[in-house]
Amino acid sequence: MVLDGNEPEFIILPYDQYEKMSQMADNKDSESEEETIEKLNREILALKEEIRQKESAELAESTAVEESTNDSDLFE
Q: How far lies 51's CA from each of 43, 65, 67, in Å?
């Protein structure tokens, strides 16, 4: 082990120990990646639903305005 101040700068390990550490790091990264992707997918679905609800509300509002305009034309 070579130290830089109090921090290890260079460490020599047996290959099997290095391989185990590498696999653990890979598993942690892939789990973290999966969690991030899952979270983003949930957020995307929530935003899609919010947009759908706003579009439905706008459509209902615009339909009500058109019906109101058409009804007032009948009374003239």
A: 12, 21, 24
For residue 71, give Cα distances in angstroms to 57, 58, 59, 62, 75: 21, 20, 18, 14, 7
Q: Is the pLDDT of residue 71 over 80?
A: no
- Quick one: what percent of the chain has pLDDT higher than 70? 88
DSSP conformation letters of the chain: -EEETTEEEE----HHHHHHHHHHHHHHHHHHHHHHHHHHHHHHHHHHHHHHHHHHHHHHHHHHHHHHHHHHHHT-
Evaluate if pTM is beyond 0.85: no
**Whole-number pLDDT of residue 17:** 87
Torsion of CA 54, 59, 64, 69, to 10 degrees: 130
